[in-house]
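Appendix B: complex inputs.
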Amino acid sequence: MPKRGGEVRLWILFVILGLHFSAAASVPRQIQVGCSILDVNGKLLRSFSGEFCRYFPDGKVLLSHGTTGLALYDSEMKLLWERKMHVHHMLRETNDHKLLVLSSSVHLFRNVMTRFDKIYKFDMNGNVEGSFDFFANVHDLENANPLLLARGLGPYEWDHVALPEVHWEYSHANSVFEIPLSPAAKSIPAFQAGNIIVNVSSANYILILDKDLKKILYSFTYLPNFDGDLVTHDVQVLKNGHLLVYVNNRQIGNNYVSTLEEFDQVEKKLVWQFHPKRSAVFNSKFSGGVQILDDGNILYSDTTRGGEVVEINRQGQELMRWSVPWVDPKTSKPLGLQEAKQLDLSQFLQHNRGI
Amino acid sequence: MKNLKSTFVSLVSGGPIWAAVIVSLSSCATAPREKWMAIPGYPNLRGEFVATSDEGAVKKFKGSNQDVVWILPQSGLSEVEARTRVRGKLDLFNDLLHPGPDPYYGKRPESPTCGEKIFSENSAGPGQPLAVIRLYATEGFVYGSCNPKLDVLKSQITWLYCPASKNFYEVKYFYPASRGWVDAPLAQCPSEAVR
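Resulting structure:
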């Protein structure tokens, strides 16, 4: 009988553990693409107007339109505040619930109307808590990264609706993230949690700004020995201190392909790289987003054949691939996308009724 | 929903027959007593109450032939507030269905499946809708897919302010896309509430 009692206790333990793990595995997850929310199988759950959005558990939603600006709505889509400004590429939220916004400032610079990146930190009431304007910091930027001077201005070839007067751009920042707590901060003080990492794709350098966006703490070139015009997106610091980078155009053999890379900036060592083997093609030329999921798998956007969302494991095995629902009626291909991110938006979906 | 008890809203069918159905929006705290009554000449709007949640939340009705109506009642709004709310909604829908060009990928398609028509805010008299729009939706009642394969529903949204009761309603009506568009506004205040 004691033996039987032990078996029963063992079974109860298994049941409890099973319930625990099944509960953990069943955490609802959604995928955000632009201002739309889809389930993990690509079914559209909710769409909002705007190009970039942030969703909050209480049902509030931050929408941005490149041409008109940034606006926060409550759960019933009543406007709480709006700011007229150019917004591009992404919106992020910091751990202390501030909003990081990639924006622009336009100035006559070296006799040319030029776009500069400007990064804002807002509080949830729409008050500016800090900003970093590349125009106001040209001297510091060029001191920190002589590559900027060497390359000069680049032609401005996008978003002419929002900024029709602009012909050149000084920089092309395309991602901004808050740096998480990581062991890399011991070796690279700028990697301290709370600081802000900005990828400036046009000149292949990465900036780290202090958390108040007042000064440059660190500026470096991703893969300094890379010989070519590297285009990168979505550069972020992982919890292990490594950089996660979406590389749009790495030369491998005689071909240019897109890769996903994890790079140890302390050891200056590439620790993981993904690009499809054999006949598969991964060639996202203009945009890209990548995320390491809680279970270690990788979610990324692929615009090789139009907008697709892909999940792989660390060995590169493809676990999921689906196209975004928006199609170009001329080509019938799915439209491109900047990034796809997996999030738990269940609280938001519960509290926000949509437009 | 303190002001909505014993308030009535008429939902009016389209076409030449302006026949009405009365939906009683009684207190949410008690067992739901909402009921669709038959609409003479418009049987598709016959339905039954299926769900509600907290006060002020969307009330959902499901009818025969896949018709679905969602009603979001809000009490205590002035007409100015209601009109401001509607203007904001129209802006959001306009942006959703007619987005600007993608900064990277150029002109976005303006497929006719995004929305049949966005009616501008009208200046109808008391008891008439502040605005009506019609557009496509997915089987999950999602607007803005702009994909004809996914947009299997048509929808009419009516925003209605009843000045006598100071009640504001957002009425979303979904029906199969294979049917013709419903032209006439789906909802109006009952005459006794207009006064």
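The beta strands of chain B are 7-12, 20-25, 47-51, 59-63, 68-75, 117-118, 129-137, 153-162, 167-176, 187-188.
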